[in-house]
Every structure is written in structure tokens, then in C-alpha cells.
Amino acid sequence: MTSYGLLIFDGADELDFTGPWEVFAVSSILRNGADTSSLIAAGTDVVSCQKGMRVVPSHTLENHPPLDVLVVPGGSGVLREIDNPVINDWIRKTAASAAWTSSVSTGGFLLHSAGPMRGHRVTTHHAYIDRLKALGDVTVIPDARYVVDGNLITSQGISAGIDMALWLVGRLHGRDHAREVQWRLQYYPAPPYQADEPL
Q: Are 85 and 55 in contact (CB under 8 A)?
């Protein structure tokens, strides 16, 4: 069994955590429900995400099961939570016991504030690369969708969290399994506009 925990907070970006959640959920379905995923918040109140989605956490910082995988999303709420000693302390302690710690987009700033990111090769949303570099004690890789360094995985913005989650289930449960998850999700991106086109 693999236990996944996804931190949520007011202002979290929706796809930062729902993308990995979908990957983990389909992985569990293919494994006959062997795995669990928890949406973890500071309290039991409904969480208002960055773009208006409202989400009910399944667990709090105090009552979630032991986690094998921690996922920290980004979003506008990071600016508030980065100075929250309760969140920082929880991330620090949870990362110390989890097999894998990960972030999506600006969630990496919370990992830096709490400590698990420091001394590692990392990435974040392309608009925040320089800000993360300026914090120091990290080597920022700007052109990778996700970066694996030890048991830390950081990913770029929003949809890159899906790539990161697929890599992770492949590492945990085998590449063939991850390929089937990807097939079930029909995750073969073919966007109508390419990154090298002028805006």
C-alpha cells in the first residue's frame, strides 16, 4: 500500500493537486484499491482554491495517516502560508518521515521555507525561477518539467505536476504500471499552441 498526502490551503492552485490526485487515484484503481490519497488541510473548513474551486479536506495536519508521499501544491496562497510556522513545522516533520517529498509549481517555496528543498537540485514555475534562485541554498534547473534529487521531486507549473506524479508511480510500482495509468488518463498532450510561438 502507498499512502499519498496532498496539502491544500486557501489559494492553492487547483490543478497543482488535482492533477497528481488523478494519477494516484487511477494507479490505486489499477492496483485493486491498494493505495490511499488524503487531502490534508490545517483545519476541517472548506478550502477555497485560487480559481474558485471549493474543496473539503479529508484530514487535518493532526489526524492524517502516515504518508509515503507528500505533495505540496503552489498557488497564490503560498504567499500567506510561507510565513505560517504551523505549516512549515508540519512540512518539515512530514517530509522527514515520508519516502518521497514533492512540490508542484510555487509549492517549492514552501519546501524551501520549511527546509526539505535546501541543498537540492530543484525547479518551479517558469515565472518564479529567479525568485527561487535568489533564496539561495538550491540549484535551480529552469528547463526541466520535473527534477528528481534523492527523495525530493519538484516540478514546474501546474500541468507539470501530472508528469511528476506519473514518474513517481512508475518508480513506486513499475514503468509498465505507470504507462497503463497514462493510457487510462489519455495523457498524451498535444496542445494547439507551442511554447516557442510568440505570445
A: no
Containing H/E element for 71?
A: strand 69-72
Structural domain of 176: 3-98+110-117+158-185
Is 135 among the domain residues? no
pLDDT band for position 196 (cuts 50, 70, 90): confident
Residue-wise pLDDT for 116-141, tens only, equals 999 999 999 999 999 999 999 999 99
Taking only the tens place, the pLDDT of each residue in 63-79 is 999 999 999 999 999 99
Rounded CA Rg of the chain: 16
- Characterize the bridge pairing of strands 146-149 and 152-155: antiparallel
Note whether residue 25 is domain-resident. yes
102 DSSP assignment: E
DSSP letter for 46, please: P
Task: For 44-60, write each residue's pLDDT tens digit.
Answer: 999 999 999 999 999 99
Our count of domains for the chain comes to 1
Query: What's the rounded Cα separation, in Å, for the pair 49 and 12?
Result: 5
Q: Tell me if the pTM is above 0.90.
A: yes
- The answer to whether position 39 is within a domain reads yes
Those residues whose C-beta lies under 8 Å from the C-beta of residue 193, and which sit 6 or more positions away, are none
- The answer as to whether 137 is a domain residue is no
